[in-house]
């Protein structure tokens, strides 16, 4: 399966895969939109950055400790 990242100002806003059909974003999107997609590894997630050489995923958002309900 092929993966593509849509970049806006070097930040991944969308991950698109071809579903194993061996197609590219240009096959299904208008040219202006397809031009914003670049091939990426399958582990890249939305919010990652790309400097032209290296993909860096954002830090995971960890759940916070639940707060206790105030006593009535």
UniProtKB/TrEMBL annotation:
On the tree of life, the source organism's domain of life is: Bacteria
Q: What is this protein called?
A: Uncharacterized protein
UniProt organism field: Aeromonas schubertii
Lineage of origin: Bacteria, Pseudomonadati, Pseudomonadota, Gammaproteobacteria, Aeromonadales
